[in-house]
Amino acid sequence: MRFVVPPHLVSTALVSALALIGVEAASAQEFAGRDKLFAHSNEFRRDVIQVTDGVYVAVGFALANVILVEGDDGLLIIDTTEGMGAAREVRAEFDRISTKPVRAIIYTHSHPDHVRGSRAFVGDVEPEVYAHEKQLRENLPTAVGRAGRDGGNQFGLALPAESRPNAGIGPSLVLGGGDGYMRPTRTFSGESYSFEVAGVKVVLGYAPGETDDQLFVWLPEKRTLLPGDNFYRAFPNLYAIRGVPLRRVDHWLESLSDMIALEPEYLVPSHTRPIMGRAAVDAALTGYHAGVSSVLQQTLAGMNRGLRPDELVEQVTLPPELADNPYLQEFYGTVAWSVRSIYTFHLGWFDGNATSLFPLSNRDRAARIIRLSGGEAAVLEAGRAALAAGDFQWAAELADYVLVGDNDHTEGRELKASALAELGERQISANARNYYLSTAQALRQGR
After folding, report:
1. CATH 1.25.40.880 fits 12-30+360-444, yes or no
2. Burial (Cβ within 10 Å: 0-12, 13-18, ≥19) of residue 137
3. Hey, CA dihedral for 414, 416, 419, 421, is it positive or negative?
4. Which of these, 123, 164, 74, lies nearest to 434 by C-alpha position?
5. Superfamily of domain 37-140+154-347
6. What digits encode the pLDDT tens for the residues 87-119?
């Protein structure tokens, strides 16, 4: 992979200088995160996997998995994808295993990629639909404005398919076919709820984490745990950049502890592939718990020393014994975003610096910085030089100073788009990659 600088932004002499300092030689390391993300796509190859007797999971058909449990005279479905099109494909695969009627559907939580394909699994028998009672009122994210952050940028929905290797926790959002959501018919409000369907014993455990209405499904006779979105093969989205209420990391850890205590032999997440074997499952869950706990405890300790968010982000990292854990790679969430979210949850937006109490407006600050720098042309020239030198973050920030006063500034938009595109190509997080590249594309399209 070569380092490419748009020719209209730099001089021939500067390109030659970059070659002399070995930019091309350094590029392999620069793109290591992106290469890991592309390799991660193998996790989502289409497959229907038999986990244990009577338990199957469909992976790779949509963002979320669909889990099938076969009973004596019927089937149990856990999570149903984000749309009827993908759900019908899964249903066709499941019909090759069993054509027994679906007696029950369970939602692990209310996110659309888990609930919108339900009608595809309904035949002549109308199934019961189980969920935690909080799901019926878990609608805050769609009830408040999010400045256009509807998830499209996070999932890269407007990007060319070849720019989206995967979504970190699934191949991609697979929309289409209509909304087949079915409202829950049976809910519970306590810590757990047990029932039997088609001869299969089921325990639902309340497990707040990624959402406050999250539950896990425990099949005690099969020693099989379905953790919903509280575990998957990626560092968890302790904060979602698409814009959601802050997530309780301490509650997430408690839910992981509850699941570990069950000592499952099979683990079937609602994203990414299943894990089989008592030792492998325990290692995955305990490592996940340790990673999340370490980030939380490091952040809290730093906060108690008076560190501010920007300082904490520079210091909090996964410890060496966890940094290479395959279930804690930052394909989805990131440590840095988690640190900022934890800080905000506990201490709010104010960072303790009195200067931040009533700051200058962005427009006023930008105007002063531009004047101090010698004018708009000088700022743009500095931005181009930063871009050519590989200092992409600084180039983007310099472009922002120009754009805050004139969002239609052609050179400023191109400078920022180029910087964000370069940043996007260096990300291991699918969410970060998609957001950078989506914004760059929008800038170039005049949006």
Report:
1. yes
2. exposed
3. negative
4. 164
5. Metallo-beta-lactamase domain (3.60.15.30)
6. 999 999 999 999 999 999 999 999 999 999 999
